[in-house]
Amino acid sequence: MISKGLLKYIRSLQIKKYRLLHQAFTVEGEKSVVELLQSGFEVETVLVTESFQQKHTHLLQKGFTLHIVTAEDLAKAGSMESNNAALAVAKMRPSHAYSWPENDLVLALDEVRDPGNLGTIIRIADWYGLKDIFLSENSADFYNQKVIAATMGSFTRITPHYVDLLQFLEKRPQNTQVYGAALQGENVHRLSLLPQGVLIMGNEAHGIRQEIMELVTKPVHIPGRGGAESLNVGTATAILLDNFYRSL
Amino acid sequence: MISKGLLKYIRSLQIKKYRLLHQAFTVEGEKSVVELLQSGFEVETVLVTESFQQKHTHLLQKGFTLHIVTAEDLAKAGSMESNNAALAVAKMRPSHAYSWPENDLVLALDEVRDPGNLGTIIRIADWYGLKDIFLSENSADFYNQKVIAATMGSFTRITPHYVDLLQFLEKRPQNTQVYGAALQGENVHRLSLLPQGVLIMGNEAHGIRQEIMELVTKPVHIPGRGGAESLNVGTATAILLDNFYRSL
């Protein structure tokens, strides 16, 4: 059983306003909660089923409130249709200043709105070893439960930075190449890319905003040969990052 | 208004058993329905809002039953949370015999179960110009409404073939290279690939089944440098197809 007050608190964290108010967010499912408990995040409360507790006893010794609950309780408290493992409430990490990396690719998202897409992008960024991600202020919220779920644990290794993207880009070091995904860009297969500079991915429907596009020095596109009009932004990010990292 | 009988029929098509019984499936949303109406699929019934009717009058002159309805009716009849455009019922295409292509990449899925992943894979296959996709018999159903939605219209250009994958692969022409996505495979960035042979993608949790893996002549993997343990199968298919088509 979960107390009414706790249930109400956990459920409220599905809404951004309350996540900001409490500086907290929820993590659901076995893989994601295990990764959370192995990370440096501060954890407030963990709800687990008996079987999760038995399997991961060593992870449950720390200074948070632990509740043993049923799968039904977890489904009631969280956003997943079914969850027979665990749900945790963790504290957001305080945002901190960021300086431009010397020799690294910077990934920036311009108004990517779909939580599933953002989660996919975080997972693929983690696959290629990025540590940070830069998002325009009205992009999807990193701490949204659907984003967290789609990252499959990668949210623990990637730091989000919500920025005024225009101001952020204007602070780039001289001679930084600014790549932008655009249907009219250069064929990415014909470029010799290294993971340096900035790669900007745009909104699902509208692409990169005009004022941001004006800062792009090298528009790139993924050549298609079939009938599909476009690629999903998560898929396109994956393919472009692979093109940046393939020569290493 | 939609009659009770029609509503019941349309809703029943969200279940595979009834899709098979009626050899019909549903297509929802503006983009998908427009692509359906421009394709060679036989269409039974189309429900549209007034605004969709006004925008796409030229597509609505054909021999199907047309109903003008509200967005609320569409949401009630379909699987989408909101739909202010259209919903159509179309006939499945009869499956037909398939012969191995001479000089083309064959994409085969071994027990890919998630409809969203299958839809993503169909969209990316269409992007690279594939015409067919081969699926083990217990893979996700091509005509599932979530699959159709995730393809963003690409379901009209890709033909699914549900096969006994083992028997299918045993019929391959001599000297066919059989690529399989596997974490212990060769680094795909170090291979010079052409879109020829077969590429097999495995189940979300278990990868390629052992008996299928035994037929793989060239296991391949996408090198990661970060902390993510794996890639989503849709993402991995996108990156691998891009590697096969990059030299063209």
UniProtKB/TrEMBL annotation, chains A, B:
Regions that span the bilayer: none
Spell out the PANTHER family in the cross-references: RRNA METHYLTRANSFERASE 3 (PTHR43191), RRNA METHYLTRANSFERASE 3, MITOCHONDRIAL (PTHR43191:SF2)
Q: State whether keyword Signal applies.
A: no
The similarity comment for this entry is: Belongs to the class IV-like SAM-binding methyltransferase superfamily. RNA methyltransferase TrmH family.
Q: Where is the MRM3-like substrate binding domain?
A: 7-85
Identify the domain of life: Bacteria
List the keywords (alphabetical). Answer: Methyltransferase, Transferase
Q: Ranges for the tRNA/rRNA methyltransferase SpoU type domain?
A: 105-241
Residues folding into a coiled coil are none
Official protein name in the record:
TrmH family RNA methyltransferase
Query: Which lineage is the organism of this entry classified under, starting from the top rank?
Result: Bacteria, Pseudomonadati, Bacteroidota, Cytophagia, Cytophagales
The protein's matches in CDD domains, at most eight in alphabetical order, are given as: SpoU-like_RNA-MTase
Gene Ontology BP annotations: methylation
Gene Ontology molecular functions: methyltransferase activity
